[in-house]
Each structure stands twice: as structure tokens, then as C-alpha cells.
Design a protein that fits this description.
globular, Rossmann fold
């Protein structure tokens, strides 16, 4: 098995975002999704990128867009997800504003790709899934391009359950 098997291309991700009618991406850029940030910043006709100062601001801006009838996607890395827990709790779990997060697993060792993150030596990688499970936030793993269909599922799930749904991107996205 090669690392290439566990990489999602930026162009395939943009197709999935477009298919899901995402009109805004609200983000604090991260390294794992750098190629996607680059592709979005070069311009995708139907998607506006909003860069925020921190992850708490990302969640509140996306909440305002949702309330205003838009269909945003939140992008950040795992450290940022932990940083904005209280805002996520207030906005998505308590106020029931549906939101989809695309979260890069920053710090994941190349030797861990293709294996359960529970085996990672790095706490910020290892605790993501148990953290989300403990607070009742549904999550899905995005490890291969075929997994991008989970984006469709995440939006449906977020709307039906009126909560946050997190898509964990397990490996750096490819520059194609």
C-alpha cells in the first residue's frame, strides 16, 4: 500500500463541494488541506472563501451564513477543532445549528496513515475520534477519494440531526 492511496486531490474535493452546493468555505487554513486552500483561493465560481482569525470566529461566521440561508463548509485542523470546542458546543450542540467541518489531522505520522488513528503516537491525532464521540458529534473519516461521498452524507446528517458533523481528513491532500 502506498501513501498515494490515502490522498484526496484538491480537484476531486472541489467537485464534491460543488456537487453539494457549498457556497462559502470559512476557514483558518491548515497544512493538511493546503492544496485545497490553494485551489479555492485561485477561484471557484460558486464558492466564496472567508479566512478567519481563529476557529471560534470560523464557527460563528459559518453559523451566521447558515442562519442567512447559505450553505457553508468549515475548514480547520484538529488543533483548531479542540480550540473551538466551547463555540462548537454552544452553536451546534445547544443552538442546533447544522454545520459540516472538514478537519485536517495535522501531526499524523506517515507511518500511521492506513492504520487506525488510535495507534498514533501523537495525542492530537489519537484523541480526535474519542473526543468527537464523547461530545456526541458524528464524524466520518476521509482517507481516499471514494470517501468524498461522505460529504453528501455529512450535510444530510447535519440537517437531520441539527448538529455538527466532522469529516476527518487523514492525510495531506494532493496537488492535482
Amino acid at each position: 500500500m502506498s501513501l498515494g492511496e490515502f490522498s484526496i486531490s484538491a480537484s476531486a474535493c472541489v467537485k464534491a463541494l460543488t456537487r453539494n452546493q457549498i457556497d462559502h468555505v470559512v476557514t483558518v487554513p491548515d497544512w493538511i488541506q493546503l492544496s485545497l486552500h490553494d485551489r479555492l483561493n485561485k477561484g471557484v465560481e460558486s464558492i466564496r472563501v472567508i479566512n478567519a482569525c481563529n476557529e471560534n470566529q470560523v464557527v460563528t461566521v459559518a453559523a451566521g451564513l447558515t442562519i442567512g440561508g447559505k450553505r457553508p463548509l468549515v475548514m480547520m485542523q484538529n488543533q483548531g477543532l479542540y480550540n473551538c470546542f466551547n463555540t462548537l458546543r454552544a452553536v451546534c450542540l445547544d443552538a442546533h445549528i447544522p454545520m459540516v467541518f472538514l478537519v485536517g489531522q495535522f501531526g499524523r505520522e506517515f507511518s500511521n496513515i492506513g492504520h487506525p488513528t488510535s495507534e498514533s503516537a501523537r495525542s492530537m491525532v489519537r484523541i480526535a475520534e474519542p473526543f468527537l464521540a464523547s461530545i456526541g458529534v458524528p464524524y466520518h473519516l476521509l482517507d481516499k477519494e471514494e470517501d468524498l461521498m461522505k460529504l453528501d452524507q455529512a450535510y444530510e446528517q447535519a440537517q437531520q440531526q441539527r448538529t455538527a458533523v466532522v469529516l476527518l481528513v487523514g492525510a495531506p491532500m494532493a496537488w492535482r
